[in-house]
Amino acid sequence: MADLSGIITPSALHYERHHAGIPDIDPAAHRLLIHGDVARPLKFSIEDLKRLPQTHRICFIECSGHSYREWEGPGGDNVQQTHGLTSCSDWAGVRLATVLSEVGISDSASWVIAEGADGAAMTRSIPLQKCLDDVLLAYSQNGEALRPEQGYPLRLVVPGYEGSISVKWLRRLKITDTPYYSREETSKYTDLMPDGKAREFSLTMEAKSVITTPSASQHVTAGQFNQIRGLAWSGRGKIARVEVSTDAGQTWQEAKLQGPVLPVCHTRFVFDWRWNGKATVIMSRCTDDTGYRQPTREALIARRGARSFYHYNAIQQWRIEADGSVHNV
Ligand SMILES: Nc1nc2c(c(=O)[nH]1)N[C@H]1C(S)=C(S)[C@@H](COP(=O)(O)O)O[C@H]1N2
Ligand SMILES: [Mo]
Fold first, then answer.
1. Alpha helices in 39-179 (DSSP H)
2. Which of 70, 204, 293, 294 has a CB 3.0–4.6 Å from the CB of 235, allowing a cystine?
């Protein structure tokens, strides 16, 4: 994370999250079954899908467990540990809407249940409207075939939603009029709120940013030019602005967005700086084009309580000591 530039994560460095390991799938034998509330249930081979109109989309995938250790206070020793569970790729494949038009969805349908072919048979319910809007059946990542770790030969890419819904090794889509309430949307991937109730289907990833340079475990040289760099992103749309504070949040200054600034993508920001050698705390906060601004840790906990696990998106603070060492605070 700290060593990357630009907004694309090299495929080999895309984060990996799998609930039951990486299955070894023969692409020639693999099929995607679409059934349920449809006029014509159909099976597609990978070759079938590759014949259909191809489209591509650059977007991030972020695990909703991203930064979970920070709920309890400063957890990770470096930015890879605190913010390593998001990656941004150029995904290619066929729009799910294109394939769904082939099966004839019944008027009563409102959900799509996606199932993976791994040992976990990862199962998630996705609102049908989202599937028709911008969900991708992806077979390619950054110009090459998907990596086995990323779901080869076929995965869903659900832009802006929590990572676990982008089901990898996709083998089945069932069209229904109700969500499935699988393990991954009841016992897991719900948010315990201050009133003791669990928030479910909190699917959209809210705006978040982090300074990657300088960040914890790095070293800053006093009296020298030191460009501050980082990433910002939002599941709701484009990043509108990023502000940086180099005085522990007393004052904020506008960072420059390096571009391209694309919706639901990592956005690189830079801020020219010279460190005066005095101990301080640096941080970034972003605002997306819906006007939503990344909260402070205090504001997030006031709204969500302290017993959550998923969807931590508070401002990340790095303390620079007088000796130039950087720490998570
Ligand atoms: N079939 C299947 N799909 C899955 C998972 C899984 O374990 N099995 N993990 C999910 C989770 S929790 C996340 S965060 C993303 C991670 O995608 P990546 O490993 O390509 O980064 O895939 C999701 N899709
Ligand atoms: Mo995840």
1. 46-51, 79-83, 96-103, 128-134
2. 204
Q: Which tokens is 289 given?
A: 């084009």
Q: Is residue 208 within 8 Å of 294, Cβ to Cβ?
A: yes
CA separation for the pair 232, 203 (Å, rounded): 18
Mean pLDDT for the stretch of residues 79-100: 98
Q: Which two tokens stand for residue 214?
A: 């300088």
Distance CA 189, CA 116 (A): 17
Backbone angles phi, psi at 128, to 5 degrees: -55, -40
- Which residue minimizes the CA distance to atom 24 of ligand 1? 167
Give kind and range of the element (H or E) at residue 304: helix 297-304
Measured from the alpha carbon of residue 88, the closest ligand is 1
Cα–Cα distance between 146 and 153 in angstroms, integer? 6
Which residue carries 């890879």 as its tokens?
A: 80
- 8 A C-beta contact, residue 59 and residue 266: no
pTM above 0.70, yes or no: yes
DSSP string, 149-217: GGTTT-EEE-TTB-GGGS-SSEEEEEEESS----GGGTTSS-EE-TTSPEE----BPPPEEEEEES-TT
Each residue of 263-285: pLDDT tens digit?
A: 999 999 999 999 999 999 999 99
Ligand 1 atom with minimal separation from the 150 CA: 20
Beta strands 317-320 and 280-288, pairing class: antiparallel
CB 100 within 8 Å of CB 131: yes
Pocket of ligand 1 (CB under 6 A): 14-19, 61, 63, 87, 116, 118, 120, 122, 149-150, 163-164, 166-169
Edge-first strand order for the sheet with 42-45 is: 42-45, 31-36, 170-176, 111-116, 123-127
